[in-house]
Amino acid sequence: MKKLLALTLTALMCASLSACGGGSNATTSGSDSAVKAGDTASYAKALKGKKVAVVRNLAAGDHTQQFLDGCVSEGKALGFTVDTFVTDGDDARTQEVTAQCIQKGYDGLIISHAQLSYAYNMLKPDIDKGIKVVTFDSMPLKDGDAKGQLLQDITSTAQDDNALASLSLGFMMEEFDMKVLKTFMGPGIPPLDRRNVVYTKLEQEGKIKTVEVIAPSDTANVRGDMTNKTAAILPKYSKGSVDAIWGCYDELAKGVLQSLNDAKRTDIPMYTIDISNDDIQLMLKNKDVWKSTAAVDPKLIGIVDTRLLAKKFLNLETPEYFNLKANLVKTSQLSSDISMTNLITVINGWGDATSKEDSLNEPWMDEVKKINGK
């Protein structure tokens, strides 16, 4: 059983890596075509003073702050002026702020967590105006159709959600026959939809049995809503009737964890996706329950998105899609002196901004930073 499962999850992850390599269409049009390849001084001059807006459609938590720090620190090092906007999951506000960026004269946008239903129509006016755009966990597909075409000249970045799901589910399934309480939010949220593809395949193959799905209805208070919903269903499941909880997103999982603690239920282990300093502390405090998470360094995501934007400003080749490498973090690997800044000491390759393959670190970028005194 374990060998068969390992083969299945390996195949899923390989398919994900193949998909990453498929999106390599270049973006080559624009007003910076005079920049000469290899001329670092020209690069630095062309990038100097570029005005960038980062719009993050999630709550202003630890994970969000690290993402924004990555965008701001890398942007300033490359010569940009960077403004950040946090819209707290308010889709109407996200669209309003993005529309205002045209009037405010931004040269580039980094958009995080726009939903399928409006991302294309929201960003098309910016592209038509000549603004360079990179998105994270947003799929600006025409008419919100998952089978449609990506809005031209945009790079859509993501964590490798296929690998995140495969890592978290694979570790979860090492010990159990798998009667699972599943957390989910969607459809229509691109990263969660992608993770759900892996889960659904394993479910269809009979490797997972979902006993119940816990989903929030209050998007303005996801954690609290999940706590209340989990509290309502826990009495239905006696000890031994549920093998594990799968948290497809850490904010959902933290609500579930609160309910488990309130009910003094330590009999159901939890396996999740995404990480922050808050998560690390909760994992250590709840070792008997929170067993692992699969994640990408959020600061590195911000750095990568900013590097892609720099390449667009210079009319260098950029892919349509770019996935960041996922890591599995086991609670047993953590200790009280571990945080997001030194997680690399226990997770090989974590947040490695020096790897060109994983983080688009181009030699000319280092030279531009030297010119800018960074």
TrEMBL record:
Gene Ontology CC entries for this record: outer membrane-bounded periplasmic space
Cross-referenced Pfam families: Peripla_BP_4
Residue spans crossing the bilayer: none
PROSITE patterns associated with the record: PROKAR_LIPOPROTEIN
GO molecular function terms attached to this record: carbohydrate binding
Domain of life: Bacteria
Keywords from the UniProt entry: Signal
Keyword Signal found: yes
Subcellular location: Cell envelope
Keyword Signal recorded: yes
Location of the Periplasmic binding protein domain: 53-304
Main location (coarse class): other
Signal peptide, first to last residue: 1-21
Recorded family membership: Belongs to the bacterial solute-binding protein 2 family.
Name listed for the protein in its UniProt record: Periplasmic binding protein domain-containing protein
Organism per entry: Clostridium magnum DSM 2767
